Amino acid sequence: MLSIFLILLSLFVLVKSADIFIDQASALAKKQKISDFIIGFTIVAFGTSIPELISTIFSSLSGHNQLVVSNIIGSNITNFCLVLGLVSIFNNFQIRKREIDINIPLNLAALMFFWALSAYMNFHLNWGAGVSLISIFLLLIFLSKDYNHIQISKKTYSPFKPLLLISSLAFLILSGKICIDQIILLSLQFKISETILGYFLLALGTSLPELISAWVAIKKHNKELGIGNILGSNLFNLLFIFGISTFIRPLNLSYFKVDLFFLTGVTLAVYFYAIVGKKYSFSRKEGLGLLFFYLLFIVFQATRNIIK
Questions:
Q1: CA 45 from centroid of its chain's CA atoms
Q2: Which end of the chain is less congested by CB atoms within 10 angstroms, N or C?
Q3: pTM assigned to the model
Q4: Which residues contact 289 (CB under 8 A, 6 or more apart)?
């Protein structure tokens, strides 16, 4: 029980610290007279993925491959199925045609490249693969300015406080370390698969920023921010965070081929729903469909773990 409490507490601190860190980093950038475009393009656009980045780094450092991979794949599946599904059920919203023409296809293109690179390297990614993933990530970002639509919704910025920036970074690192250590301990104590904990504890916890920001944005009728945040986070997770992980330790994806197929299918389902939805809208029907996919994923992982 203590481990579960510490995991939940550290996840809360991790998410809250990331929010404060991004807020202060944005304030610092603005103080240095950096444009809103650049702030949105870099700091804010990837802010909600910082919990995934921190937890993945510590998982890699501790040599737990299953936690690294399940955290990233699980976060992306959670973003599409659970986050977008829940938001769609309670908020009927319309997305821009640009999402369908550019941003969802970008996610599909990233997945296809990831598949091709993984297959070429026999699903064992080293630092060379990491360089390729990060290079493609930067290329996709800079070749498509339309992708950068995760803008700061307000033109007012918090006052920059150096101590708050430093302390939030310290709490980010500390909470991330505690969270991963406790998940590993929980796995050993109760003989629970690290993959299961990565998918349904770590991935859920680190996806909270996406859920909160998407919910608030859509409630405030800022649909571009809501869906853009999810798409941007998934792209960042798949290419950048996986890429960074390979610099610390090679990744073995052999066990996760079916999971990657599932992520690909979910991404295609989101694209299909976006096209067939009335006026590019996500309603309760599309939301229930996405939640059904998430339920299938839970059943599959539970069944595989029991058989194992």
A1: 12
A2: N
A3: 0.85
A4: 85, 269, 273
